[in-house]
Amino acid sequence: MGCAGSSQSKADGTVKKIRKPKPWKHPQPITKSQLMQLRDEFWDTAPHYGGRKEIWDALRAAAEADLSLAQAIVDSAGVIVQSADLTICYDERGAKYELPKYVLSEPTNLIREGLGSLQF
């Protein structure tokens, strides 16, 4: 038996701090509504990839929150963060959870809707 936070600790005893994903580019320019549809589809099907629904729910809440709240969410849910950008996590039972970058941040080639051809 270990302490409650031992599973989240690295070898030096510190918890891995969450950070935003590095900038990324979608294969094609994408609108905000298309991005939101991709995210909704992912979260609707995520529990079918394995793992526990409550962990998927916690990961969604963390992905949609600011960094300090996201850190509190994953810590309280017992999520073990392998990649600080939340792309790879584990639960306390060892189940792996992989999150695509599109649920964590916006791509660099996001098309702002309603601007027509005036893209900057």
What does this protein look like?
With 120 residues, the protein is an alpha+beta fold. The protein has a domain at 24-103: Ub domain-containing protein, DC-UbP/UBTD2, N-terminal domain (Bacteriocin As-48, Chain A, Up-down Bundle), CATH 1.20.225.20. Helices cover 30% and strands 10% of the residues. The chain has 3 helices and 5 strands, in the order E-H-H-H-E-E-E-E. It has helices at 32-45, 53-63, 67-77, and strands spanning 30-31, 80-81, 88-90, 96-98, 110-111. It has a 3-stranded antiparallel sheet, with no helix packed on it. The chain has a two-stranded parallel sheet with strand order 1-5. Strand 2 (80-81) and strand 3 form a beta hairpin. Helix 2 (53-63) packs antiparallel against helix 3 (67-77). Residues 1-13 have low confidence and may be disordered.
